[in-house]
Design brief:
Blueprint (H helix, E strand, L loop, with lengths): L2 E7 L3 H14 L4 E3 L8 E6 L6 H21 L5 E5 H7 L1 H6 L5 E3 L7 H11 L6 E3 L4 H7 L10 E5 L1 E2 L10 H4 L4 E2 L2 H13 L4 E5 L8 E2 L5 E2 L1 H8 L7 E5 L8 H9 L6 E3 L7 H6 L6 H14 L4 E8 L6 H14 L3 E6 L17 H24 L5 E9 L5 E5 L5 E5 L8 E9 L4 E5 L5 H5 L1
Parallel strand pairs: 1-2, 1-3, 3-4, 4-5, 5-6, 7-10, 10-13, 14-15, 15-16, 19-21
Antiparallel strand pairs: 8-9, 11-12, 17-18, 17-20, 18-19, 20-21
Helix pairs in contact: 9-10, 10-12, 13-14
Bound molecules: 5'-deoxyadenosine and iron/sulfur cluster (SF4).
The site of 5'-deoxyadenosine has 11 residues, from strand 15.
């Protein structure tokens, strides 16, 4: 009989990808995904540590899952509870103390051992077996995972790199995800081919530090991200390639040249800046100054004039003065972003900045966040409006909210709403943009909308 598997995913695309892989690992053991935890034989919380109070949120969710476990136990049924991801990695044994009913605590590097851990947990029955696996046997992880099985649709994600050696002073990733590790190119290309065979026409390469990619190439040499992208671009029917997240320090000449030369590489770059103040950038250990970032943006735009930029910002980092914050606003004005995420600094236990004494008061952070977001939204709206009247290629991804409507993505990652037949999902259509809001575009199919039809 099929067993029911419920996975709740917090946080980033890397986590969404990991959740899908955990489902893949468990599928051969009879676990099929379900949408709710109430009747699940196994519950996995795949957690993320980047945002505030992440651990507390996980513990309160665990309280709810525990009730489900107790109700099912009264009916003579077992529920295996696992916590995965960064909170699991950071809490480790501590989680077993605070939530002893959790069967399995596993860090991001141990997913391939999940079936063995589940078997142990199932044997232990109602007594929690207490498997804690949060070590970092990085190399083994990608080798032992089965290849992704479920089709991801027109736009797919593919992890090429994990971990981070940068140690920004606010960030937990180097501690929770471990050292940088790149998958061999052969594995990545094989997985990309499979995704394309399953109908994906766009692939986003994922990594915490994706442009630090240094994997073994097909020729046995170390390949950088640009070389990998060139190899992937040779896959027939793979029309669009993206990558995220990049660090300004790792944007090398080869990658900039790839943006100039490769039509499949989308003209969009998520390039976190965090702060526009050199003093704060140094305190964050970002390893570059504001002027370096601006110079890089200029080179990127010379290489690809259509490039849209996106970023992450932190306001209220310890010691940030009004003048530092103004430097961030100034830099944002000079770059002109198409999209951006901004956060109030939140101290993460175990990171150097959490120990700083000059923490910024909460109300100052809130006020700065609003000012920054007002500016970023204004820029985002202006960028979106700049496309009104243009004919742009849109990858049709899924049904929209209304009957007959589809949602697709522009080359600049804007969601585009339009009327189109459901059968055209997965195709790239020329769309006349008619209106823009802060968050999306709307338009209609151009005539002819599909290049293949026009040629026929
Ligand atoms: N506080 C606030 N924002 C943070 N980020 C990472 N750590 C913290 C923190 N401690 C943000 C950064 C990063 C994004 C993924 O999350 O901007 O680029
Ligand atoms: Fe965190 Fe900095 Fe590494 Fe990004 S580069 S994952 S912010 S330590």
């Amino acid at each position: 009989m099929k067993k029911k598997l419920f996975i709740k995913t917090y946080g980033c695309q890397m986590n969404a990808y990991d959740s899908a892989r955990m489902a893949d690992v468990l599928a051969p053991f009879g676990y099929a995904p379900v949408d709710a935890p109430d009747d699940a034989d196994m519950v996995i919380l795949n957690t993320c540590h980047i945002r505030e109070k992440a651990a507390e949120k996980v513990y309160s969710e665990l309280g709810r899952i525990r009730q489900i476990r107790e109700r099912r136990a009264a009916e003579g049924r077992q529920t295996v509870i696992a916590v995965a991801g960064c909170v699991a990695q950071a809490e480790g044994e501590e989680m077993r103390v605070r939530a002893p009913f959790v069967d399995i605590v596993l860090g991001p590097q141990t997913y391939h051992r999940l079936p063995e851990m589940v078997a142990r947990a199932a044997r232990a029955g109602d007594r929690s077996s207490g498997v804690v696996a949060t070590d970092f046997p990085v190399e083994a992880k990608f080798d032992e995972l089965p290849e992704a099985s479920a089709p991801q649709g027109p736009s797919a994600f593919l992890t090429v790199q994990e971990g981070c050696d940068k140690f920004c002073t606010f960030c937990v990733v180097p501690y929770t995800r471990g050292a940088e590790f790149s998958r061999p190119a052969a594995q990545i290309i094989a997985e990309a081919r499979k995704l394309v065979a399953q109908g994906s026409v766009e692939i986003t390469l994922l990594g915490q530090n994706v442009n630090a990619y240094r994997g073994t190439g097909l020729d046995g040499e170390r390949w950088g991200l640009a070389r990998l992208i060139r190899a992937l671009a040779e896959i027939p029917r793979l029309a669009r390639i993206r990558y995220t997240t990049s660090h300004p320090r790792d944007m090398d000449d080869a990658l900039i040249a790839a943006h100039a030369e490769m039509p499949a590489l989308m003209p969009y770059l998520h390039l976190p800046l965090q702060s526009g103040s050199d003093r704060i950038l140094a305190a964050m250990n970002r390893g570059h100054r504001a002027a370096d970032y601006l110079a890089l943006v200029e080179r990127m735009r010379r290489a690809q004039p259509a490039l849209a930029l996106s970023s992450d910002f932190i306001v209220g980092f310890p010691g940030e003065t009004e003048a530092d914050f103004k430097a961030t606003l100034d830099l944002v004005k000079r770059v002109n972003y198409a999209q951006a995420f901004s956060f109030k600094y939140s101290p993460r236990p175990g990171t150097p900045a959490a120990l700083a004494e000059d923490q910024v008061p909460e109300e100052v952070k809130t006020e700065r966040l609003h000012r920054l977001q007002d500016l970023l939204w204004e820029q985002q709206l202006r960028f979106n409006r700049s496309k009104v009247g243009a004919v742009i290629p849109v990858l049709l991804e899924k049904p929209g909210r209304h009957q007959g409507q589809l949602v697709g993505r522009s080359p600049w990652l804007q969601p585009v709403h339009l009327d189109a037949p459901a059968a055209s999902i997965g195709r790239i259509a020329d769309v006349v943009v008619r209106a823009a809001t802060v968050n999306s575009l709307s338009g209609r199919l151009a005539a002819p909308a599909f290049k293949e039809d026009a040629a026929a």
